[in-house]
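Q: Predict the bound structure with NAP.
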Amino acid sequence: MKLSGNTILITGGTSGIGFEMAKQFLKLGNKVIITGRNEQKLQSAKAQLSGLIALQCDAGNYDDVAKLQPKIQNDYPDLNILINNAGIMRKVNLQKHNHSAAELTCELDINVKGPIWMVDTFLPLLTKNTKLKKNIDVAIVNVSSGLAFVPLPISPVYCATKAALHFYTLALREQLRNTDIKVFELAPPATKTELLGTFSNEDMKGTSMMSVEDLVGAFLNGLANNKYEMAPGQASQLKFMSRFFPNFILKQLSKNIDAMHAS
Ligand SMILES: NC(=O)c1ccc[n+]([C@@H]2O[C@H](COP(=O)([O-])OP(=O)(O)OC[C@H]3O[C@@H](n4cnc5c(N)ncnc54)[C@H](OP(=O)(O)O)[C@@H]3O)[C@@H](O)[C@H]2O)c1
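A: Predicted complex:
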């Protein structure tokens, strides 16, 4: 993939991985549009990154996603890369019945339904744009997680969503094989962002954290080399272990369960 001259839409670009992607893509000479729910965070991102376009859109709300499409089609008709990055992660104690039904499954709306709706909504425009310019590739990137391969049991719903997104991405890539749309998956390892803000040192014991700059650097390198599945750092170890030593790695990731029950 060429890393300059693209028009890129990143869901959830006001902080963490999405923000760093926006920063690095802008530096490389791309048009970058980010989305997020919080208007203040969108304004702050715009103030920090010159040229950034920031639009309010909740990826977990179908009406918002549907409204975003005509706006992008009118104002940025040459969109050629969609990055489904928006996501949330929570600790959930399944033995405590202190959550509403909607609360219990909210990660499904944002982490799974969001990307599926975004792909469905933007596929016609992306397909049209495969014929736009000869040297510009069209791509969809889904941001899953190393936890798509083996669950961290204190975040059961999150891990289920990332495994679902991983399988959806594999299927999408095969379904689009007869098109000129490339389908990438970025499965990050634990990365220093706000996502893990509510997790304690005990929760993250034994996990080495990647900096967001290194993670996005590895992502851009993978994109440039058409590496369709990217699992940087510890994420590749999780994938390997889940295949060859599944019980051992699940036990390792289950060590903080007792601390959760005690809290
Ligand atoms: N950090 C890690 O260790 C790690 C590891 C593996 C995978 N990931 C994945 O990487 C992606 C980015 O995470 P991050 O670590 O960068 O998290 P982050 O720093 O918390 O950033 C998440 C971004 O998504 C936005 N967002 C959340 N819900 C949204 C929604 N419904 N609609 C639109 N935007 C939404 C947030 O803005 P608003 O709140 O204003 O909407 C924010 O801009 C996620 O999919 C996450 O699962 C992260």
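A: The chain has a mean pLDDT of 95.
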